[in-house]
Design a protein that fits this description.
The protein has 574 residues and is of the alpha+beta class. The chain is built from 17 helices and 14 strands. It has helices at residues 3-6, 11-19, 22-44, 51-70, 83-98, 111-143, 150-205, 225-231, 235-238, 249-259, 268-279, 330-366, 373-404, 416-433, 452-468, 519-523, 532-542, and strands at 209-214, 220-223, 288-296, 299-310, 322-328, 408-409, 412-415, 437-440, 447-450, 475-484, 490-498, 546-552, 556-564, 572-573.
Length: 574
């Protein structure tokens, strides 16, 4: 608690003091000390030798105070203010001369105006202060014919000017440091004010993004125009409310349950759990990005992509808050959903006629003896392209199942080594026709619990991808093995390594995105639509495994799949 809180009765005095000019304030301490000296001297001394000089000293000091209060010192040069402390030195000399010769101790009063001079004008003030102290000390030697303590006076004639010089030097240095600090603080405050105004302008100008700043507990402090447009609520309505109010309660509760947080409905603990899932990794200094349903007039209105970061604490804050940036992606989400539905519908509708074509091709193959060589060639072309089209349709349907959350794996005991051997046998003709060496480096059985159909599809995709990107004379090696994870749990590892064209480093992270094709594939016009690795990643994820990719352009690529080999994953949609 401050002194102002302890003594409210002195508030009027503080208000008056704060309103006074700094020139006058600098003279008040000496005036009070001078008043104390006037009260004490008659009791401390036997007599006052020259009352007229004492009165003259009082008059001079009063004149100094009146001048300090009334005159417009801010219009005049700084040197004009030196007349005030110098006048106070004259008042000291007059008081000392007016008293008895034993009052030479009053000379010490000059240290106060000495400090004022040094504070006001730096080095020049130090010189004036030292000269004033010398003059004040030598005056008794000139005025008093018979000093009671001549030796002490001589000592003071040397000591007091030295003390005055040292004190003035210290005060001047302190004043310079304080002024430099004040100027630095002012420059910093101006810079912060400019930055704040600039940031405030940028935040308000961002009408396409909702920008919201909160304290550490989620209470809204900043709500920009973009947030107003998105939520149809004004900043005045939202500032002071929790950011949790802008999210769908059911969606937040589902996220809380997913995160495994325990909370009681309707309690403060529940609100804290909801806020915790909104900020996510931002609570520990990271960046949290997640899609949420946003509300308008209390009803679900669309989807936003929310980015949450930690806000640096402001001056006076113990803990920083959070910064939320939300972008409306409703149109994008609807477009993706419509595209997925269209692909799923078209793929399903295409599968029936393609199956019919393959059926009739098979019937033609049964009558192979009646076909000419040219006709047999036509049938093979039809079958090859129909199979290729059917494979593409199957990939599209599988991708649609993954996106819709209906992708199902049915794990059972399987040997990964046998799956790899079967895939290598199937890919061998393609490898031979392209003059690529295909090797199976698996040394022993690799038992695990997995969906054998999806596992074979995963290995086929990886081998097909490696062979397509490897030029004639190159090599593709596939290995499967069992090993122990860091937690000693058994895991199956599959590696597919090629000496192909490689993939640019900046594109490696996008390889498992659907419909993405590396630049090395498009430049060489390699066939494909960019679904194989996307489906492979989905299969690996469904089995609780990991897919890692390392590649160097012009050297080759290695795909590594790690699958748990202990407990079978739960069968069901993923």
């Amino acid at each position: 608690m401050s002194a102002q809180d302890h003594f409210p009765r002195f508030d009027p005095v503080r208000t008056v003091w704060a309103s006074l000019d700094s020139v006058f304030k600098r003279q008040v301490p000496f005036a009070l000390m001078y008043l104390v000296a006037l009260v004490v001297v008659p009791f401390a001394l036997d007599q006052v030798d020259v009352p007229g000089l004492v009165v003259a000293g009082i008059f001079v000091e009063v004149a100094v105070l009146v001048a300090a209060y009334w005159l417009p010192w801010h219009r005049w040069p700084l040197a004009a203010q030196h007349s005030l402390p110098l006048g106070s030195v004259v008042a000291v000399v007059l008081l000392e001369r007016g008293c008895s010769s034993s009052a030479v101790f009053l000379t010490a009063l000059v240290l106060v105006p000495v400090s004022t001079l040094a504070w006001t004008d730096g080095r020049r003030g130090v010189a004036l202060a030292t000269g004033a102290a010398v003059a004040a000390v030598l005056t008794p030697m000139l005025w008093f014919d018979d000093l009671e303590f001549p030796e002490g006076t001589l000592v003071r004639a040397v000591l007091i000017p030295l003390v005055a010089f040292a004190l003035a030097s210290f005060v001047a240095a302190a004043a310079d440091n304080l002024r430099a600090h004040a100027e630095g603080q002012k420059a910093l405050a101006d810079q912060l004010r400019t930055s704040r105004d600039l940031m405030a302008g940028l935040v308000e100008a961002a009408t396409e993004q909702a920008i919201i700043a909160t304290d550490s507990g989620g209470v809204i402090e900043v709500f920009n125009r973009g947030a107003e447009n998105l939520s149809a609520r004004t900043a005045e309505e939202m500032i002071g409310h929790s950011v949790v109010e802008m999210r769908l309660a059911e969606e937040l509760d589902a996220a809380v349950e997913e995160a495994g947080r325990q909370a009681s409905a309707g309690s403060a603990r529940d609100a804290a759990a909801r806020f915790a899932v909104i900020v996510g990794q931002a609570a520990t200094g990271g960046v949290h990005v997640r899609d949420w349903t946003y509300l308008r007039h209390g009803e679900p209105a669309g989807t936003v992509r929310l980015t949450v970061t930690r806000r640096v604490p402001l001056p006076g804050e113990d803990h920083g808050g959070y910064l939320f940036v939300a972008t409306d992606i409703t149109a994008q989400v609807e477009s993706e959903r419509a595209k997925d539905e269209f692909l799923g519908y078209v793929s399903h509708e295409l599968r029936t006629p393609i199956s019919a074509v393959l059926g009739y091709v098979e019937l033609l193959g049964l009558d192979d003896a009646n076909l000419t060589d040219e006709q047999r060639c036509y049938v093979e072309v039809i079958e090859r392209n129909a199979q290729r089209l059917l494979h593409l349709v199957d990939d599209l349907l599988l991708r649609a199942q993954v996106d819709a959350g209906r992708f199902v794996v049915r794990p059972e005991p399987v040997d990964l080594a046998e799956v790899v051997a079967a895939s290598v046998r199937s890919a061998a003709p393609f490898a031979a026709s392209h003059q690529v060496t295909l090797l199976d480096g698996t040394a022993a059985a690799v038992p695990l619990a997995a969906d054998p159909v999806r596992l074979a599809q995963m290995v086929d995709n990886l081998l097909s991808n490696a062979l397509k990107f490897t030029l004639a004379g190159g090599r593709v090696v596939v290995r499967a093995a069992l090993r122990r994870a860091p937690d000693l749990a058994p895991e199956a590892v599959l590696e597919v390594t090629d000496t192909g064209v490689g993939i640019p480093a900046q594109e490696v992270r996008q390889l498992t995105d659907r419909f993405f094709r590396a630049s090395t594939a498009t430049q060489r016009r390699l066939p494909g639509v960019g679904l194989g690795l996307s489906i492979t990643k989905a299969i690996v994820d469904a089995h609780g495994g990991e897919l890692s990719i390392s590649s160097e352009e012009g050297v080759g690529t290695t795909f590594t799949v790690t699958l748990p080999a202990g407990t079978a994953p739960t069968s069901g949609p993923v």
